[in-house]
Structures
1.
Amino acid sequence: MSSIAISYGENGPVFCGLKSDGSHLATCYGSNPAIIHATPDHLHFLGLTAGNGFVCGLLMDSNQPFCWGNTEFIPMGVSLQSSRNSEYLEISAGDHHLCGLRKPLMGNMRNTSLVDCWGYNMTKNHDFDGQIQSISAGSEFNCGLFAQNRSVFCWGDQTSSNVIGLIPKELMFKTIAAGGFHVCGILEGAHSSVVCWGTSLDLEEEISVSSVMYAGQLNVDLAPLDPMLSVVGGKFHACGIRSYDRAVVCWGYTVERSTPPPLGVKLYEIAAGDYFTCGIIAETSLLPVCWGASFPSALPLAVSPGVCKAAPCARGFYEFNNATAPCKSPGSHICVPCSSGCSSEMYEVIECSGTMDRQCGYNCSSCGSSECIKNCSQVASGGIKSEKFWSLQLPIIVAEVCFAVFLVSAVALTSVLYVRYKLRNCSCSVDSRKGSGSSSFRKESGKIRPDLDELKIRRAQKFTYEELERATDGFKDESLVGRGSFSCVFKGVLKDGTIVAVKRAIVSSDMKKNSKEFHTELDLLSRLNHAHLLNLLGYCEEGGERLLVYEFMANGSLHQHIHSKSKEMKEQLDWVRRVTIAVQAARGIEYLHGYACPPVIHRDIKSSNILIDEEHNARVADFGLSLLGPANSSSPLAELPAGTLGYLDPEYYRLHYLTTKSDVYSFGVLLLEILSGRKAIDMQYEEGNVVEWAVPLIKAGDVEAVLDPGLKPPSDLEALKRIANIASKCVRMRGKERPSMDKVTTALERALAQLMGSPCSEQPILPTEVVLGSSRMHKKSSQRSGNRSTSETDGADTEDQRIEFRAPSWITFPSVASSQRRKSSVSESDLDAKNIETRNVGNGTTVGDALRSLVEEIGPASPQEHLYLQHNF
Ligand SMILES: Nc1ncnc2c1ncn2[C@@H]1O[C@H](COP(=O)(O)OP(=O)(O)OP(=O)(O)O)[C@@H](O)[C@H]1O
C-alpha cells in the first residue's frame, strides 16, 4: 500500500495517487474508463493499491478497503469487511484479488495475525501465528513479513513462480514487494541490499536467493548490489530507489519499445504496473514520471509523496515538508525514508535529522565524474563554467549526438528490411477481394497497409456527424442498443431508410487509443469481405468524434441470447441454431486466418462480438484490437496482450506470443460457452472459469454435465459430444497443439449435420446464405450427413479423406471450396498433437523429456518460451 498505485490489464493502464493537497482524496489518470469514471471524489484514503482492471483504497474513517473499476472478482463500490469490526492496517492487490492485513490483535490473540482476502481463487480468512508487519500481493499469491524475526512467508498459487518453494528462510528483511511472478526484499542491516526470488522472463532459471547471494552478479538481470530505500515489483521486472541518490534502478524483463528509467532524477515513491513503473519526482511539483511500455512518460497530476500517518516519524525517516504536501488531519505527517551513504566522490554534509534528509556534498579534491566537475567548477568560479569543464563535456556531447544519429538510422534501416522480408511471400491478389477489382488495389500488391483514404473511397461511405446524429435521433438513450468498453452502439435510420448500427467511441482521456482502435477497425473492415463478418457501411471522423456505421444486426449479440435471464430469449437459440452460429462464426474466423492477405488475427473473439441478424445468421464483429499477422501465419508476433479476460490465450498472455492459434483458443472458450450457457468467467460458480470447469468433465466423458441446463438436450448427444471435444482441443495450453480454424470449421460442420439429422430436430433450421447483402435460401437435405458414424468423436482428428463430405450448401463460404480447405488441414497440428499425446502418455515420458521434445519441435527457446515451458510443464 502506498500513496500511488497502478492498475493494468486489457482495458488500459491507470495511475492513481492521493492528491498532493493532503486531502487524502484519490485522483487517477489513464485509459480505463471504468476506473477513471468511478474514482470516488468524496472518500478519504490512507493508501492505495491496484490490480488488473481495478484500484482499491483503505478508507480513512473505517479502515476498510473500498475498490472501484471493472473486475468481477472483488465487490466494487462498497467497503469490504470480513466481520463487523474488521479494521485493516494495510491492503495489497494481486492480479484479480485483494488481501487486507487486520490491525494487530490484543490480549491472548496478540501473537496471531488475521489476513482476509477477496477475489479469484483467494476469498478466505487466514489466521497466521506471529505478528505480521506488512503484506504484499503478487499475481496469484501473497507474502507477509513477520515483525519479530523479519522472515518472509508466502501463500497462494505458486505454479508459475515457485515463490513459496524458494523463500530464503535464513534471511531477515526490512521490507518486501511482490511482483507478478517474483518477490524482492530489502535485507536488514546497514547495506540494505536487495534479493529477489521467483521467476523472471529474462532468466532461464528460477531466481533463487542462493545464486544471488553466493554466486554474485552472474546475471545482469538480477537485482543490483546498490543499497535501496524501497522496491516495487512489476509483472516480470522490479525497480528500486537507490539509497544514496534516490535514483531509480530497474532489473528483470523489459518489453520491446520500453522507455528506460529516467536518469538523474530523484524519486520519493514508486509503484509498478505490469510492464511499466511510475515514480514521484522529488521536487515541489510532485508530478509523476513513468517509464516502461504503453504509458505516457509524464502525467499531469500532482500526488502526495507518501501516506499521512498520525505517529511521529521513526528513526531513519524524515518528515516531508508540510508546506508542499500538507496533511490535513492535525498531528499527522508524511514520513519519507532518509537517504543513506554518499557516492564515492561525496561526503555527508548534513545527517538525517527527522525534519530533513541527509545531504551529501562533492569532495572537489577527488572529482572523477562530470557532475562533480560541473558542481565544483560552479562553486569555484561563482557559477561561470570553467574551460576545463567544457573541454571534458564537449567530446561527450558530440559522441552522444553521433551515437543517437547512428542508432536512429540503424533502427530505420532494420525496420525497412524486416518489412520487405516479411512481405516477400505475400501477394494480395485482386481476386481475393470481392468487388474491388480496381487498378489502384493492384498497384498496392504486397503493401501491408494501403492508404486509409483509398480504402475509405473503395468501400466505406463518409458520413457527416449531423447525418448520424439525425439518424440516431440525437444519440438518444432510446436508440442505444449496446455498450462496449470504449464505445456505445446506437440503432439509426439513414435518409434512404437503411437501418444501421452506429458505434460511437466514448470520449476518453486516451484519445490515441480510441483513435487507434477506430482506424484499425476502419482499415480492416474496408479490406475484408465475408458473409460472416460484420459489414462496415461508413464512418465519420470529425473533431474528437469517431463513429463507425455498420449493418444493423436485429438479434443483437450471441452473449445477449445465451446469458439472457429471460427463458424465452434463451430458447430462441436452440441447439441447432447455436451450433449453426458456431459454424458461421468459425467460417468468418477461418476466412480471417486463411484467406485474408496478410492474415488477420482478431484478438477479441467472444460471445458479445458474435452478432446475429434477423435470420439468426452470425457475423463476427469488433475489429478494434485486430492485427495483421505475418504472411507466414505460423510465425508469432510479439505483442502485448490485449483481449478479454476468460477468452485470452494463456500462451499469448504470458509470452506475448501471438499467432492465429490465439483466436482458436478464444473460439474454444466461445464453444464451451455455447454448450454450457456459462460465461467465460462466472464467479457465481465455485469453478468460475469455464475452461477449468468444463474440460476435465469433457475429458472424463461426462459431456452431459456440461450442457446448458436451460435447453432441452437433444435425443442424440453425439453431435454435442463431438463439439465438446473440438472445444477442449481448441483450449489446449500450447498453440501448436490446437487445431487450425479450417479443421475446427470442418469438424463443426459435421457435428451440425449430425445434429440436424437426429430425430429431435423435427424442423431443421435452414440458415440463410448471406453474400453481400443478398439472401438466398438453400433447402439442401442433411440426411446424408446425419447417418455418419456417431462413434467419431473428433472430426478434426479423424477426418476421413475418402468421403468427400460437403457441408450443407447453406453454410456460406463463397471464396473457398471445402476440398481446398481440407487440403490445408491434412498434415497439421492435430496429427502432431496426437503424436505428442501418445508420446507423453504411452512412453511414460518425464517432464525433462517433454521439455526437450517441445524445444525440438519449436526450435531453440527464447527466454519467453523458456519461461512458458517452465510454467506449464
Ligand atoms: N451492428 C450491430 N447491430 C446491433 N447491435 C450491435 C451492433 N454492433 C454492436 N452491437 C451491440 O452493442 C454491443 C457493444 O458492442 P461493442 O462492439 O461496442 O462492444 P463489445 O464487443 O460488446 O465490448 P468490448 O468493447 O468491451 O469488447 C454489442 O455487444 C452488441 O450487443
2.
Amino acid sequence: MDDLRRRTEREVEALNEKFQRELRLEKERTEKVAEKVTKDFEEQLEHMEKAHKELLHDQERQIRGELEEERNKRSREIQELAAQSTLRLQETSQDLERKAREADDVRRERDETAAALQREKSLRTSLEDKLTEASANNMTLETANRAMKAKIDFLESDNQAQSNSFADLHRLKQEAEEAMNVALEKLRTEETLRRKLHNQVQELKGNIRVMCRVRPASDSEAEDAAKIAFPDAELDCKEVTVQGPEKTSALGVVTTSNNAFSFDRVFAPASHNAEIFEEISQLVQSALDGYNVCIFCYGQTGSGKTFTMSSVDGMIPRATAQIYSEAQRLAEKGWTYKMEGSFVEVYNENLNDLLGKAEELDKKKLEIRHDLQKKTTTITDITTVELDSADRVEEIMQRAAANRTVAATKANSRSSRSHSVFILKLIGENSMTGERSEGTLNLVDLAGSERLAHSQAAGDRLKETQNINKSLSCLGDVIGALGQGKEGTHIPYRNSKLTYLLQNSLGGNSKTLMFVMISPLQAHLSETLTSLKFATKVHNTHIGTAKKQSKVKE
Ligand SMILES: Nc1ncnc2c1ncn2[C@@H]1O[C@H](COP(=O)(O)OP(=O)(O)OP(=O)(O)O)[C@@H](O)[C@H]1O
C-alpha cells in the first residue's frame, strides 16, 4: 500500500511537474502571441491614426478651400450689393436734386408770375390814371386848340399887330433876363456881405465865448443834489449861483458862501442839446465862411461832456448836419464845398488816430505840421474821411468809439482820460466870384478835469492825471496869453500837444467857445467850483475885440 501510495505520489508528482512545464511553455507561447498581437494591433492603430489624420487634414483643407470660396463669393455679392445701393442712392439723390430744382423753378415761376401780375396791375392802374389824365389833357388841349384857332384867326386878320406883340414879348424877355442877372449878382454880393457881417457880429459877441451847462441829476442821484440856482433863468440866463460848503468859524458859527458866476450863456438842467446847438450854430456858420473854430467841452468826469459833444443828437452830428444843409443852400450862390473829417485823441501827450487801426493806438507816431501863412494845420499819416453824405459822421463816431474801447483797460475808461478832437476841414470855392474859403471846425471833448488830490491816483493813472492837468492848464495859459492881446506876446502853444495841435484855431481871427460842464451833485461841489473858476478866468479873456468882463462874485 505504501509502495502503491509512493508510486502514485511519484506519478502525481511527475504529472504535476509535466503539467507545470507544459503550463509554463503554454504561458510563454501565449505571452509571445499576445505580444505579437499587441504589436500588430499597435502598428495597425498607428497606421490607422496616421491615415485618419491625413484624411482629417485633407478634409480640413477641402473645407477651408470651400469656406474661402464661399467667403469670396459672399464678399463679391456684398460688394455688388453695395455698388448697387450706392448707385441707387446716387440716383435717388439726383432725383431729389432734380425735384428740388424743379420745385425752385416752380417757385420762381410762381414769384415771377406774381410779380408780373403785380406789374400788370400797377401798369393797368397807371394806364388807367394816364387815360384819365390824357382825357383831361385832351379836353384842355381841345380848349387850347379852340383858343389857338381864335388867336390864329385874330393874328391872320391882323399881321401888323402880331409882329408888334412879338417884339414886345422879346423885349420883355430881355428885361426879365437882365433883372434876373442883377438879382443873382445882388445875391452873390449879399452873400459876401452876409459873411462879413456875420463875422462882425461874431467878433462883437467875442472871439472867446464861455457857456455853462448843468446836467440833470438822475433819479438815483436826486438826494445828493447841490444847491445850484439860475437867478436870471426867466430872462437870457447868463448867471448861475452855487452854494459853497459849510464853514464853521472859531466861535462855532456855521456859514455858507454863495458863489455867483456869469457867462455868455448858462444852460439849466432842463435844457436840451437842440438849445445848446442854437448857440453854437453861428460858429459852425463861421467855419463854413472860412474861419477856424474851436468848441471845447470842459468839466470833471461824468459832468456831461460826451453827452453834449458826441451823443447821437450831440454837437458833432448836429454841426455836420447843419454844414450839409448850409452847403446846399450856398450852392445856389455858386459855392461848392469839400468836407474832410478826421478824429484824433491826445492821450498821455501822444497824438493818436481814432479812425486808424486800434492796434496802432499809442504806437504810431503822428506829427503836427503848421502852415503859419495859410493858418492851416496838417497831421502826418492821419486818416481823413471825405464827408460826402451825412451818414458818414455816424460811421466815424462808431469807428472812433470802437477803437477807444479796444484801447481801454480795466482801470482806465480811455474816453475820460484823454482829449478827443473831431476836426472838420471845410474848403469852399465860388466859381462865379472866384472867392475861396478854408475853415476848420474843431470839436474838442476834453479829458475829465478832476484834480490830482481828489483822484488819489498812483502809477500809470498818476501819469495820466498829471498829463491831463498839464494840458488843461496849458490851455488856460494859451487863452490867457492870447487875452493880453499885445503884439509879440509869447503864446505857449508848444507846452502841450493839445494847444500845439489847435495853434491855428486859437487866437487871431479864430473863434473859441468853451462849454464848462457842471455836475449837479453835492459830492462834486469842490470840482464844480474849481471848474466854474477856471471858466470865469477864460471868460475874462478877450481876444480880438473888446467885450464885457465878468467877475466871480463871492
Ligand atoms: N444833459 C443831460 N441830460 C441827460 N443826461 C445827461 C446829460 N448830460 C449827461 N448826462 C448823463 O450823465 C452821464 C455822464 O455824462 P457823460 O458821459 O457825458 O460825462 P463826461 O463828462 O463825458 O464823462 P467822461 O469824462 O467820463 O467821459 C451819462 O450817463 C449821460 O447820459
